[in-house]
Amino acid sequence: MSRSLIPVNRVGVDERAAALGRRSIKTTAKREGIRLATSMIDLTTLEGSDTPGKVRHLCAKAVCPDGLRPEIPSVAAVCVYPSLVGVAAEALQGSGVAVASVATGFPAGQTSLKVKVDETREAVAAGATEIDMVISRDAYLRGDDARVAREVEAVKEACGPAHLKVILETAELPTYAHVRHASELVIAAGADWIKTSTGKASSGATPGVVLVMLETVRDHAHRTGEIVGVKAAGGVSNTKAALHMLVLVKETLGDDWLTSERFRIGASSLLNDLLMQYAKLDGGHYGRAEDFSKE
After folding, report:
1. What is the per-residue pLDDT for 98?
2. Is residue 203, in this structure, part of any structural domain at all?
3. Domain housing 72
4. In this structure, what CATH number is given to the domain that contains residue 40?
5. Of 184, 195, 133, residue with least CA distance to 158
6. 5 in a domain, yes or no?
């Protein structure tokens, strides 16, 4: 099936994204940036070895990332597989930290629509307030936009009150024009958020990809007044990368978008680096990695 793509200047996007990454962030702003980035994290564990105990430990860390520094906020959400949603929901009850769950045959998405819908309903019934679904990249790459949209619409309906984040797996999309087109496609189908990656691909939230997605939701907001969130996931593993993301958001969409209601960072290892960098600003030396739990 053929589709018409609006060209996106890759060189221009990459140059602008890189230039914004070279912004100097002074000590006070860096301290505020670290706290803000922490509040935007979807703290994630998506391994076959995940256990209820590991998820409870992760939830405790999500609520109170640093017991010595109460000014460090809770993260935005904890993201787990559907089978562990109930554990996370119980551990996070009353904390203000959301329960997110991957679904729809994550990470490959190679299951039937019925299975995708059933898995989504089960996760929501167990307590998930956010669902991270993956698009059918095989359908998208064949040009079958109708199937991609139909699946997003069906999963959105299955979400009920839960918010839907739609993962594009941008490493598998050939060009920035495809990233923009796929973003527009799933937004039109009902996505509350667009998300870069499963975290299982070769790359994910590169600055250029995130900039294209931010510009897409900016243009959508200008055109319709509707707000769609963006989640940068896959590869944002250190403080420098996280602060780069915040600069991209600020310069593309403004200060109103610097909130966990509109921007998220999907991460497993990022939180520890943020805490170590904050300790450096706080006490003049880096915290030791062993002072922070690995999960």
Report:
1. 98
2. yes
3. 10-291
4. 3.20.20.70
5. 133
6. no
Q: Is 2 among the domain residues?
A: no
What angle do helix axes 145-159 and 176-188 make, rounded to 10 degrees? 50
**Pair 101, 132: CB distance under 8 Å:** yes
Total domains, the chain = 1
The model's pLDDT over 136-161, given as tens digits with 9 standing for 90+, comes to 999 999 999 999 999 999 999 999 99
Q: Are 236 and 205 in contact (CB under 8 A)?
A: yes
Catalytic residues: 132, 195, 231
Kindly report whether the global pTM for this prediction surpasses the value 0.90: yes
**Residue 170: CB partners within 8 Å, gap ≥ 6?**
179, 196, 197, 203, 204, 206, 209
Cis preceding linkage at 107, omega within 30: yes
Q: Predicted confidence band at 204 (pLDDT cuts at 50, 70, 90)?
A: confident
Of the pLDDT bands very low, low, confident and very high (cuts 50, 70, 90), residue 216 is: very high
| pLDDT for res 260 | 98
Q: Is residue 215 part of a domain?
A: yes
Using the predicted structure, report yes or no on whether residue 284 has a pLDDT greater than 70: no
